[in-house]
Amino acid sequence: MTQAQAQDFACSGFGEHKNPFGSAAHDAPTHEAVTIADAVRRCRWIAVDINAASFGLYFVAPSMERARLVPCFDSDFPRVSLATKFVSGNNGEELVRHARASTQPRWWSANPGTKSSALFETLDWAARIQPLVPDSSGIAFPVYADRSHCGAVVFFGHDIMLAPEQLHEIHARCFALFAAVAAIRPGSSGKVPSVSKRELECLKLTANGYTSEEIAKLLKLSVHTANQYLTNTAHKLNAVNRMQAVAKALRLGLIE
Amino acid sequence: MTSLAVQQQASRTFAARLASRGDLTGFLMELTEEIGADNYMLVTILHEQDRNEARIVASNWIYDAIQLAGHPLIAALAQGPLAAAPGSRPRSLITSRAPAAGPLNGEEARLLAVLGHCEIYSLQLNVGRQRLFILFSAAQAGQINVDGLMRAQLQCCYALSQVPALLAAASMRDPLSDRERECLFWVSEGKTTDEVAVILGVSSNTVNSYITQAIRKFSASNRAMAVATAIRSGII
């Protein structure tokens, strides 16, 4: 078989795509279910690409009360590194406040002589913060995912190599990684309770500001039934009232 | 690598000083040109009782195009299946090939094509916890540089993070005060007015007035809707 024939054969087998893997790779869903171990591996690839010594992925708690970073994993997975202990303590507060309001990367450097420090200075849109870990250098990327998940992917190392034109690509990869992690990270309970279609309908209308009477009219139910549906939903979601049921359903992605 | 060098320019020119409304327009125009697009439209989505409304923050679409398309359609375009989060590969809508399914019907697609929006991309922007969308469109399919687009997406996120006051003004919605947000958060956790009062160490009347303020600012009809709006816009 000549090369041309082989190519024809390949084309007939795979439609218009010459490379069966090349085109598939483009459309590969970035939100595919992964395990935390997979996520650690993906994060390690990013770290290798920018020559970082270690890394960590943290969530920003939704509560206003706690300006703390909640560790998800770091480069010592399944154990927890010393750096993470600093980051999830008081040192992380500035980054939490920053990530809630801004997507710009933030960096810090222990001493201005290091390679990474000179490099960070050249990055547009990135600015300096107080060191997350004493005597270290590093860069933190704020990341966000569906259902108002917010977090940061942090890389540590005195020899980080990150060209200004590489910044967007690295940050984009952090976003994709975080989206995958947020999708597998179990919510408060781990499994989503089974709420019936009718109950969800009532809950959705409640979230849109309708009262029980209005819901009853819209769905052609009695007010009593509508209320019963809402009570059931609240019960299933382990919520004490309607407001909490709406909040939980939105955060779990049961309603949009 | 020349295209990359050019692309860095908008970032360079505006990284140092992006302060005014004019700077934002300048930045978006340069970015649009760099990625080979013709038009941009930056929108926030507001959840009304029955539908989503697009509030346009910045745009160089002609007025008639916006009027003919209408705000609900723009919201559907921006927020629909087309929208790509940062880090995922954007997909375009080609309006000249009448789509069978999707946010547009054949007539609407034809209309957009006639108005010079033959290929449309929608990118989700995360500006802190706030979510916006930017539409880039071009008069010819294939004209927009997709790699450039992904880079532009993050540049927009960075740039808009620089001007929070501008965005708040553009969405024409009073931002909640810290106290109002805190009250709403505890309400979303299922706490009653009296419980919130104890947690925050203020009187029940004060808590109620904070919540009423929040409901008014969101033009919500009750507490449940205010809580839902706050979660949907990512502030609690």
TrEMBL record, chain A:
Domain of life, per lineage: Bacteria
Q: Which InterPro entries match?
A: Sig_transdc_resp-reg_C-effctor, Tscrpt_reg_LuxR_C, WH-like_DNA-bd_sf
- UniProt keyword annotations, A-Z: DNA-binding, Transcription, Transcription regulation
Please name the Pfam families in this protein's record: GerE (PF00196)
| GO molecular function per UniProt | DNA binding
Q: Name one GO biological process term.
A: regulation of DNA-templated transcription
Q: Which residues form the HTH luxR-type domain?
A: 188-253
Q: Does the keyword RNA-binding apply?
A: no
Q: What is this protein called?
A: Helix-turn-helix transcriptional regulator
> From what organism does this protein derive?
Borborobacter arsenicus
UniProtKB/TrEMBL annotation, chain B:
Extract the SMART domains matched here. HTH_LUXR
Task: Keyword check for Glycoprotein, yes or no.
Answer: no
Q: Where is the HTH luxR-type domain positioned along the sequence?
A: 169-234
Q: Which PROSITE patterns match?
A: HTH_LUXR_2
According to its UniProt entry, the protein's GO biological process terms are:
regulation of DNA-templated transcription
| SUPFAM superfamilies documented for this protein | C-terminal effector domain of the bipartite response regulators (SSF46894)
* Keyword vocabulary terms for this entry: DNA-binding, Transcription, Transcription regulation
Q: Which Pfam families does this one have? A: GerE (PF00196)
Molecular-function annotations in GO: DNA binding
Q: What is this protein called?
A: LuxR family transcriptional regulator
Q: Which organism is it from?
A: Borborobacter arsenicus
